[in-house]
Each structure stands twice: as structure tokens, then as C-alpha cells.
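Deliverable D5.2: sample structural annotation.
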Amino acid sequence: MNDKITVIYNTCDKYEPLWKGFFTLFKKYWSGFSGDIVLNTEEKSFAFEGLSIIRPVAKNTDCSWSQRILNSLDTVNTPYVIMILDDFYFKSEVDTAVIERCVTRMDSDKNIMMFSFAPQPEPNKPDPDSDIFERRGRFATYRVNAQINLWRVSYLKKILRSYENPWQFELSGSFRSSLYGGKMYSLKKGAPLVFDYDGGFLIIRGQLNHEVADFFAQNEGLDMDLPFEPFDAQARAEGMSHGRNKRMICYAKDMIVSLFRK
């Protein structure tokens, strides 16, 4: 598996305080991974004993989230990548046997483009070849998403647009994927976890979720006194409700335009 997969750790320089905790848990809970880990950030570098952390050549530090992923993919020499966001701290052992089975299936079926290691919204279909995965509907919500996924590199490059942020990648990328086709799978609800993590709730819109942070401080002994403002759930809910219709109109326009832009 280590010669088939590269891990891309998607982050940014201002989130450097997260890196030590992440890689401490990465090494603890995925100790058998010896492949390359691409540090996808603007300019900073980072090293952790026992891990092969590399960073792409900084072609242009002032670029979009998606362009930096494309830059990172230029350094990848494996057919598949696993993309992980910076606050996806692991909580237990990674199930490497499941990852290996996914790689084997992708090797044998070139039309499989992605396995998502988190349950995803309906509509999905049963997977006759697995009791823990289901096949994503062609027009399923968040068919493309930023959870921990195993991607075929060629398809990920096709889905990405150089100007998009993470939310545009998920929304417009899902629309493009529905047109491009390809088989995509996600973990069933209630299935044993391959990656045990909180789904991106440690840092929410740049704010530290102390409920999640306290778990890692108490159970893993990590220093979670991080330089982020505390998460305010009420303020976020109010901000999300304000201007919702306007945002949806903009998203719909972006989806159509993305078919004609690179």
C-alpha cells in the first residue's frame, strides 16, 4: 500500500499550531504508513521523526486552496492519494486492511474514482462487493467532499478547478462529478470506522472547539492551548441563516460557470 498511496495534508501556514498534535496522533495510530506525506501549505515546512513529510515547490504562495492541491499533486508519484484536513485528529488505530482492499479494487476497476471513509448523504446504493461501503448516487449531495477520502489522482485533477475554495470544491465539484460519472463509494452509516476522527469539528471557521480540544488534552495528553478564538456556536448559527438564499443563488451560478473554467 505504501507504494500506491501518497497522503496530502491540507493546511495553511496560520494553522501551524495544529501540526504537531496531528502528526503525533498520525504516527501513533497509523504507524505502518511509510509513504510520502505532502504538507500542502503556503511557505512553511515541518518535520516529524519517523515520517516522510515533504512539501511541494512553492510556485505561487498567493493562490487558491484548490490550486495548492494541484501544486501538491504535481509532486505525487503514486496512482492514489488520501486527502486529510489539518484538524482531522485521529482517535484510534487506522484500519489499514480496509484501505488495502480499496486499493486492490481500484487497481482492478479503473472506473472507481474514490472511496470516502465517512458516511455521506443519500441517495446511495448497496455495494455487492462490500458490507461496509455503499455506492454513491450520481446526483448525491456532496458526492465530492473534503472528508478523508482515497482518490484516484487522475480523477481528482479532473475535478479540481484552480480558482476554487473548499466549499466550491465540494458543491461545484459534486455537480461536475455527476456529469463526469465514475464509481464513487462511501462508508455505510454504522459501519466500523476506517479513520476515527471528528469530521472537522476541532477548528470551525477559524475558531477552536474546546469540547473537541479537551478530549485530546485529557485522553492523548496533547497541549491544546492553541492560539485560536473560542468557537461560538450561536454566532455561527446566526451567520449561516443570514443571506442563505443569496448564497444558494451564487452557488448555483458557480456550478454552471465551473464547467467552462479551468
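Annotation notes: The chain has one domain: 5-200+232-258. The two ends are 32 Å apart (CA to CA).
The annotation will be released with the project's public dataset once the embargo ends.
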